[in-house]
Every structure is written in structure tokens, then in C-alpha cells.
């Protein structure tokens, strides 16, 4: 996958198709690649298409467990666990964004906070009747 897809990602949802074994087997190489670019972001594993054969939910898919990742049985077709999986993963993404475990992300967060503070300062100054202009007049 092109590295730009990993840029600034705050979570990863790894989906495989329970009807296609190869998609499960490929998870480890996808995961390896992900961790090269985003070593600390939250990630989960999703077994999709359980509606096609509910018996798969009796099986154990150990990849997620081995990596310490949350695991969900999902059906995109009938909606089983879709909302739960997204809710929990988004929450983890938000938590990570606020408190990143990766040095580069910490730097990005600091820059973002700095930008926000600058914007707040400018709008407060404008409210006080002071027009703030950048040196270039942009
Ligand atoms: N029964 C069932 N079929 C599904 C489910 N999710 C997706 N499909 C079907 O699987 C096929 C592929 O779905 P896509 O949304 O194209 O997924 P994709 O990841 O882009 O798949 P590829 O094009 O094969 O890479 C479609 O025919 C979908 O209708 C599901 O939860 N249950």
C-alpha cells in the first residue's frame, strides 16, 4: 500500500473475509507493513461476512490475540457488530490522538496545539478591535 495511506492515521481496522482463507493469512504482512509506518496506533482485527456461515464464530482466529489486538466477528451485510466495532475503535483513535505513544505524533500534536493557540489569540485580539495581519499580508 502506498505510504501516504498510513500518513496521520490514528487507527487501523484490519478486515478479513471468513470465506477466503488467504485474506486471513495475509493479515500478518499487512500488520508488519502498518507497524513500519505507524508503530503505536490502535488497531483491531475484523472477521467479516459471518452472516454467510454463523458457524465460523465458533472458530478461534488467533492472529489478533497473538498481537494483543481487539477482535470482532462482523457482518457488513446485516450490520452485526459494525457499530460496536467502529465506536470502540474511534474511541481508541481519539484517545491515541490526545495522548500519542509515538514521538513524531507527539511533535505533530504540539504543533497542532500551537496553531490552535495562535488562532485563539488572533480571534481574541480581533474581538478586542485589534486587526492582526500576517507579515505577508495574507
Ligand atoms: N454475505 C456477505 N457479503 C458481504 C459482506 N461484506 C461484503 N460482502 C460482499 O463481498 C463482496 C466484496 O465486497 P466489497 O465491498 O467490494 O469489498 P472489497 O474489500 O472492496 O472487496 P474486493 O473488491 O474483493 O477487494 C461484495 O459482493 C459484497 O456484497 C458481508 O458481511 N456478508
Automatic annotation (TrEMBL):
The keyword DNA-binding does not apply. Keywords: GTP-binding, Nucleotide-binding. GO terms for molecular function: GTP binding; GTPase activity. Transmembrane segments: none annotated. Residues 116-138 are annotated as: Disordered. PROSITE patterns: RAB (PS51419). This is Rab-like protein 2A. It comes from Liparis tanakae.
Amino acid at each position: 500500500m502506498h505510504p501516504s495511506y498510513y500518513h496521520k492515521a490514528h487507527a487501523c481496522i484490519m478486515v478479513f473475509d471468513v470465506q477466503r482463507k488467504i485474506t486471513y493469512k495475509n493479515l500478518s504482512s499487512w500488520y508488519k507493513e502498518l507497524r513500519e509506518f505507524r508503530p503505536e496506533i490502535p488497531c483491531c482485527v475484523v472477521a467479516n461476512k459471518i452472516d454467510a456461515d454463523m458457524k465460523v464464530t465458533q472458530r478461534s482466529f488467533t492472529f489478533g490475540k497473538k498481537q494483543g489486538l481487539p477482535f470482532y466477528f462482523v457482518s457488513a451485510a446485516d450490520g452485526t457488530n459494525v457499530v460496536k466495532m467502529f465506536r470502540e475503535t474511534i474511541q481508541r483513535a481519539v484517545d491515541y490522538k490526545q495522548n500519542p505513544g509515538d514521538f513524531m505524533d507527539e511533535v505533530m500534536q504540539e504543533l497542532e496545539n500551537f496553531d490552535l493557540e495562535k488562532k485563539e489569540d488572533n480571534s481574541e485580539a480581533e474581538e478586542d478591535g485589534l486587526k492582526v495581519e500576517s507579515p505577508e499580508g495574507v
